[in-house]
Amino acid sequence: MASEREISTVTVGGKGSSLTSSAVHAISTGFSKGTRDFGKEQMAIRGRAFSIIESVFKKHGAVGLDTPVFELRETLMGKYGEDSKLIYDLADQGGELCSLRYDLTVPFARYLAMNNINALKRYQIAKVYRRDNPSKGRYREFYQCDFDVAGQYEKMEPDFEVVQVLTELLDELNIGEYEIKLNHRKLLDGMLEICGVSSEKFRTVCSSIDKLDKQPFEQIKKELVEEKGLAVETVDKIGSFVKKRGPPLEILSDLKNVGSQFLENEGSVLALNDLEILFRALEKSKAINKVVFDLSLARGLDYYTGVIYEAVFKGATQVGSIAAGGRYDNLVGMFSGKQVPAVGVSLGIERVFTIMEQLEKERNQGASIEERRSLVIRATETQVLVAVLGNDLPLAAEVVRELWAANIKAEFGTNKKFMKQYDRAKQNGIPWIMTIGENELKEGIVLLQKVENKEEEFKIPRDRIVEELQKRLNASSS
């Protein structure tokens, strides 16, 4: 029998519309934890950011790709290490067990395998889902912006380009200071082998080390000893290595010094040689000053096989890492048995939006009234408002259609009160207003005014409105 709460309903919105009291309570108090609504100003910021990101991806020759929001559960399982517990499972639908995608990398690998593709440079901007504990800048539904290069290339070519793309993205978004922590999975495995960790524990130990940016080493040490069964001496040795971080070429030189234990480990030697090629290339491309060689970076995901990296914002807004990625040479082979090496990066755009929104707020707080007007975030890109002074929709339709046909971004209004239409343009940041009243109709003209200086009027012949407006729009943009 249903409880009273389940069956009690209230009428909302008139006849035939009813909601449970619990649903009404949810609507009035908020929404699901770890999700967000976005207003028009926030959407303007997001649109601007997505445009920048897509242009950087395309500049490097990437093509767009989209994949389903859910995958077969077996596709996702066994790829994320201890984070697999964060995957959202869906109810059985017709005999298929499906889950919401956790990231965009595994679906990309599945796509390559299914379509027998050996090489592809792709980007994807889409939402992913995680059953995580929500906190500032951490959500259960969020966008990722991925750039990946799959296929056989000369050593470290795609790795260099992916790190370069990451620096260009963060520079173009203009969010402030950041650093890219970088390590190599084979170097990490070599370090654990040198410390005496058995190979079957490499991944679970990496998951613990990966928490060092959020927890002190003493807490990680306790987890490794008490929960994962490592000896205290082993953990102390790990601790001495993971404290190494600094300028890439300096740390690399230190690790390659005569007597270094890393030179006695085959995997570590391969990793150090890879990193030398990468760092020399980044030095020439002027990107190495953004990179920190950090032996504590582990990236707990199971599919990484080579270089790994994570971008961290250095400003006041605390959001954690804002991008991460690495090389995953075996992931495609898990689906097809055919090895297709790949490397990529994922920008956690929601955290970048958090930073951008905070920067906008700070700019407005420190600005004068006039400066605030210029800093207003425009939710639309409208260039001109066609203001017909009277109830003459056919006239408004005729004029605004000419503007639209010329690809001018225009809105229209029919109201006899000029100030009402002028205020609409001002409030929405529309730079120009085109007015047509009885007098203008008789003279065969329109009045064109810049909204920020309405005293200055231009009388434009009716048959030249597109040409004259475009001339002024071009002058303003230049």
Automatic annotation (TrEMBL):
GO biological process: histidyl-tRNA aminoacylation; mitochondrial translation
Residue spans crossing the bilayer: none
PROSITE patterns assigned to the protein according to its UniProt record, in alphabetical order: AA_TRNA_LIGASE_II (PS50862)
GO cellular component, one term: cytosol
Segments forming domain Aminoacyl-transfer RNA synthetases class-II family profile: 34-356
Binding-site list for L-histidine: D103, L104, T105, R130, Q144, D148, R299, Y303, Y304
InterPro entries: aa-tRNA-synth_II, aa-tRNA-synth_II/BPL/LPL, Anticodon-bd, Anticodon-bd_dom_sf, His-tRNA-ligase, HisRS-like_core, HisRS/HisZ
Catalytic activity: tRNA(His) + L-histidine + ATP = L-histidyl-tRNA(His) + AMP + diphosphate + H(+)
Pfam families: HGTP_anticodon, tRNA-synt_His
EC number per UniProt: 6.1.1.21
Source superkingdom: Eukaryota
Enzyme class: ligase
Keywords: Aminoacyl-tRNA synthetase, ATP-binding, Ligase, Nucleotide-binding, Protein biosynthesis
GO molecular function: ATP binding; histidine-tRNA ligase activity; RNA binding
HAMAP family: His_tRNA_synth (MF_00127)
NCBIfam families assigned to the protein according to its UniProt record, in alphabetical order: hisS
Family classification: Belongs to the class-II aminoacyl-tRNA synthetase family.
Name of the molecule in the record: Histidine--tRNA ligase, cytoplasmic
Source organism per UniProt: Acorus calamus
